[in-house]
Amino acid sequence: MIIEIVIAIVCLAGGVFTGKFFFSKVNKNIEEDAKRKADDILKNAEISAENLKKDRMLEAKENFLRLRAEFEEDTQNKKGILVENEQKLREKERQLAQQQEQQRQADQELQSQKQSLQSKEENYRKKLEDVERKRVEAEAMLANQISQLEKIAGLSADEARQQIMDALKAEAESKASSLVKQAIEEAKLTATKEAKKVVIETIQRTAAENAIENCVSVFNIESDDVKGKIIGREGRNIRALEAATGVEFIVDDTPEAIIISGFDPVRREIARLSLHRLVQDGRIHPARIEEVVNKTKKNIEDEIIEIGEKTVIDLGIHGLHPELIKMIGRMRFRSSYGQNLLQHSREVAKLCATMAAELGLNAKLAKRAGLLHDIGKVWHEEPELPHALLGMELAQKYKEHPEVCNAIGAHHDEIEMTSMISPIIQVCDAISGSRPGARREMMESYMKRLRDLEALATSFDGVQKCYAIQAGRELRIMVDSENVSDEKASNLSFDISQKIEKEMQYPGQIKVTVIREMRAVNFAK
Description:
Pfam families: HD (PF01966), KH_1 (PF00013), RNase_Y_N (PF12072)
Strand order of the largest sheet: 1-3-2
Function: Endoribonuclease that initiates mRNA decay.
Distance between the termini: 113 Å
Order of helices and strands: HHEHHEEHHHEEHHHHHHEEHE
Domain HD: 341-434
Radius of gyration: 55 Å
Largest sheet: 3 strands, antiparallel
Shape: flat
Family: Belongs to the RNase Y family.
Keywords: Cell membrane, Endonuclease, Hydrolase, Membrane, Nuclease, RNA-binding
């Protein structure tokens, strides 16, 4: 037992010694390895620091060289600018010196001219004194001679001059009186005969139609089924047509026909063409009606220009202003006492050309004045002047010949006639208007009353459009919904009716209808 214990102790001591030796060896190896690694790290660090130092020095050197180069370049540029400024300064000094030299020379020339003018002025003054002295001497000599003649003749100079003038005047009056008397007698014998001859030949050589303008147009339809589409549900299509065109559509028992009534031929034509397009298209509703009416109005404007151009080409008139050509086209849709204004103006132009040619005057100028004599009747605004004076102002505005302007203004004796063309225009206008069947007085007064009725309504604020329908028995007024409320629309209807009662004369009664429509339009995109 003791032996085993001793053995165990020996073994334990040997193990402890062996472990201590082993761990000592291992620690020594680890320490050597760590030391070696530390030396490597130090060497690498020294190498890296040396390389970094070299890089920084190299970079610093490059920056120094770059900054030095930039400094030298900037210095060189500034030197160049300085040299250039010095050159410019020298150039300006040179120019200033030249200007001073030129100014000095100019002053010398001015001084020389001044001295020359003073010398000339002195010479002129001396000559004037000589002329004045000679004039006084001549007057004294003339007075002496006249005094001697008066003594010899026994008459003064004024008395002798008066006797000679009286003798010459009596002789001239005697001869002139005999010549005037002879001319008057010959004129009485031939003037009436020649005037009748010219007028008759002029009328015979001009053919004219006897046509009277009316106030209705008839629109033919294929079947009465189309009438229902035109009327629309509860009459909304008819109301939309009347509101857009300003005329009245009469749909009665007349088979296959709709009557379009209105005093303005332009509106009737727009209404007729619009209705024709709507029937052909088949889509008849308020929105489509407004679209078609607007397109038709544009087409009518183009047609007006085309009619004006065709008229001046047919008559051989050239160089008219485009605005005058447009007014001539509008004559096609205007009547005067029931007589179509364009037809009347063409007729007057032809009569004037023929009569001017018979009298040996300028036929082209007379034809031009005849065509334009009623141009004041188609001015788009309500005129404050008579149409003859307004037409003269328009012709002057568009650079027409002065004789043409005078003929237009004088054809109703508003101004004095200054050329031979003016009475020709007046005579031919009377010939065209006075022939049987040419005019109807009631038509003109009727249309004037309707135009005055519309003008009265449009004078109120907020009124957009106004149409007289039902032969003037109804006034239909469209107002701006944004500026006129429902209450104001009611008051507007009352105010217009009161003004009509005070200022106009009319048979029966007039219905004043104010229409205010509110629309909201948006687009889905």
